[in-house]
Hints:
By secondary structure, the chain is of the alpha+beta class. Helix content is 42%, strand content 21%. The chain has helices spanning 2-17, 21-32, 37-44, 50-89, 108-122, 136-139, 150-154, 179-188, 227-242, 294-299, 316-324, 337-343, and strands at 126-127, 133-135, 171-173, 192-201, 212-222, 248-255, 258-271, 274-277, 282-292, 308-315. The chain binds 3,4-dihydroxyphenylalanine (DAH).
Amino acid sequence: xxxxxxxxxxxxxxxxxxxxxxxxxxxxxxxxxxxxxxxxxxxxxxxxxxxxxxxxxxxxxxxxxxxxxxxxxxxxxxxxxxxxxxxxxxxxxxxxxxxxxxxxxxxxxxxxxxxxxxxxxxxxxxxxxxxxxxxxxxxxxxxxxxxxxxxxxxxxxxxxxxxxxxxxxxxxxxxxxxxxxxxxxxxxxxxxxxxxxxxxxxxxxxxxxxxxxxxxxxxxxxxxxxxxxxxxxxxxxxxxxxxxxxxxxxxxxxxxxxxxxxxxxxxxxxxxxxxxxxxxxxxxxxxxxxxxxxxxxxxxxxxxxxxxxxxxxxxxxxxxxxxxxxxxxxxxxxxxxxxxxxxxxxxxxxxxxxxx
Length: 356
Ligand code: DAH
């Protein structure tokens, strides 16, 4: 059977030339598939005489085995080549230095809010919250700031737009965190000890003012709370916050929501233009405070004949500037990455909170 040699040559050449698994499968089907050329020839064996079959049978079987082995060998070779390709493509230099992943920092406002919250929590103050869009009743009236009161103008209030015919009470962007006093009293009654950190808004913009900034409000109401408790709490707070004993100075002042009212200064000195809190004989004003006005207690649903309390409010951003030596308030809210990297805190950097 001369044909066998031809077939052998033809298929071995096709197998060697098959460029991929698919082509190889094509060759297999053409040769050994059900209707493949060699399969069909083997079916012809039945029609041969025994003599012919004795010659053709082994020759065809040999051919079939040879083609089969060649197919398998080629498949292994193709698989190996594919693997080599992949290994080359996925080659990894484990000696390369690691790629740094961009990591954000914690904003000084967040950091300082955490620090303040932790210190006041130690003194039994819980965090209270209120909305940033307030009714003018919560923001002003309930705090004894009458409509004609000059404080109402001084606050440079942002008023929310009201469509004609909208009869809801006027809403404002809260100008201070003091309205949270009223909400906390209404929610929790007396006795109560809360702080309320949060955003406040005023139409003001220069190096020390931004239209949005942060305050922290404090309030303690009980049967015999006095100015002395206020002074102790604040000195304890500043000492823990700055990590050094800080004296306070109370100056008589006026706020509609407190009577008496005091502005509080902390002891400090300037050495070569640098501020040092807790030393020297300079004073720096840091917050407003006082004994809560009876009308404010009443607005919160608390009987001023039974209860009294102190309240205070201070700027968080300013606290951050003082502790971490940050010069310009406006930069706090500009999202400049260089600033954020410089003044921001790492996620695992624990705030330095010292026991008093
Ligand atoms: N709400 C005042 C402000 O934004 C700060 C303040 C002063 C809060 C005296 C108080 C307080 O609770 O007693 O200027």
